[in-house]
Amino acid sequence: MSNRKLLITIGLVAVVMSFVATQARSGRKASTLTALDYAEIEQLNTHYAHAFDTCADKGNEFADLFSPDGVYVFGDGHKAEGHESLAALAGGPDCAPPKGPLNIQHIFVNTMIEPSPEGAIGKSYFLEVIIGENGKTGQIRLGAKVYDVYIKTPAGWRFKSRSYVSPPHVDRIPASELSHHAG
């Protein structure tokens, strides 16, 4: 091998080793999501609304959608953490049955899911609605942006956190989101 080829080979090896060392030091692997991962996360989001709106299994079905250390962050920043608190959020042991066949309140739209070092992150728009029944007018009670962190557990994908941002608490929008809107 000529000296020139040897130097080029050594240089390329050094660049590759430097890149590998930098990636190892960062401790963050770029995760990828399969089509099945995306579908399962979409189902998790859909299950959330149904479990919450129906108070399924006295809120336990809702709480089971979160990891054991999962947290729900309200628009004002206070939190519900742990299975019991999450189940109570969805109605808990004293939950009354849904009031009617159209007990639809939680509507999530435009969900975007991206891979992250922890698993995946998501963001969506949320509308809390009351469907008009028996001649009563329906209404939209709340609009918010929702930010999720999803992790894959032995039981499947779960929420590690779900955070709502709604007026007047728009100061809680993640900085990464604000950079998309900078002029």
Number of beta strands? 6
Strand content: 25-35%
State the secondary-structure class: alpha+beta
Could you give the order of strands across the largest sheet? 2-1-6-5-4-3
Helices and strands, in N-to-C order? HHHEEHEEEEH
C-alpha termini separation: 55 Å
Give the C-level CATH assignment. Answer: Alpha Beta
List keywords for this structure.
globular; Nuclear Transport Factor 2, Chain: A; 183 residues; six-stranded mixed β-sheet
Structural account:
The chain is 32% helix and 31% strand. Mean pLDDT is 79; it is low at 6-26 and 178-183. A 6-stranded mixed β-sheet has the order 2-1-6-5-4-3. The protein is globular and about 90 Å long. The chain has 183 residues and is α+β, with helices and mostly antiparallel strands. It contains 5 helices and 6 strands; from the N terminus they run αααββαββββα. It has a single domain, classed as Nuclear Transport Factor 2, Chain: A.
Give a short summary of the structure.
With 183 residues, this protein is α+β, with helices and mostly antiparallel strands.
Helices and strands in order:
Layout lengths: L2 H24 L8 H20 L5 H4 L2 E8 L5 E3 L1 H7 L16 E10 L4 E11 L8 E15 L2 E10 L9 H4 L5
Parallel strand pairs: 1-6
Antiparallel strand pairs: 1-2, 3-4, 4-5, 5-6
